[in-house]
Amino acid sequence: MNPIRKKKLEAEILRILSMAILEGKVKDPRVFLPTFHRIEITDDLKKADIYFTALCNNNERKKLMAGLSSSAGFLSSLVGKQLHLHTNPRFFFAWDNNYIKSLEVIQLIEEAKPKTLYEELHPGEGQVSSANAEVASDQAANEEPEDEPPAS
């Protein structure tokens, strides 16, 4: 299969799955707002590994996995109908550990960044955020100038 077509198909499958869950088409109460990150589909479109995460603890994660696994057939037929596929792929859902690990790496990088001189001199104080700086500059720009006496 053409790699570009495959990427487009994978993106469309993820979109359809997300919309099906958001629109409440999956009636299983164990399925509660997973975030689908990536999909790996075989070239013959017979198998698709779908990686996801969700804001939940381990017990809820197991329930979510069971709910998605039991809804896999319905979701596969839904995707097949919407994309007019000759063969519906068989879905296998897996927790996306790579995504979680990437978030941990990003956090470690943020912690390892060298501090600015201001942060070293004033520990615990936050820097002025760009949003606050914009508000302050907007307020200063909107202040009306005081009436100046006419020059004589």
UniProtKB/TrEMBL annotation:
NCBIfam families: rbfA (TIGR00082). Keywords: Cytoplasm, Ribosome biogenesis. It is found in: Cytoplasm. Belongs to the RbfA family. This is Ribosome-binding factor A. One of its GO terms (molecular function) is ribosomal small subunit binding. Residues 121-152 are annotated as: Disordered. InterPro entries: KH_dom-like_a/b, RbfA, RbfA_dom_sf. Its main location: cytoplasm. Residues 141-152 have a biased composition (Acidic residues). One of several proteins that assist in the late maturation steps of the functional core of the 30S ribosomal subunit. Associates with free 30S ribosomal subunits (but not with 30S subunits that are part of 70S ribosomes or polysomes). Required for efficient processing of 16S rRNA. May interact with the 5'-terminal helix region of 16S rRNA. It holds the Pfam family RBFA. It comes from the Bacteria. The keyword Lipid biosynthesis does not apply. One of its GO terms (biological process) is maturation of SSU-rRNA. GO terms for cellular component: cytosol. The gene is rbfA. Monomer. Binds 30S ribosomal subunits, but not 50S ribosomal subunits or 70S ribosomes.
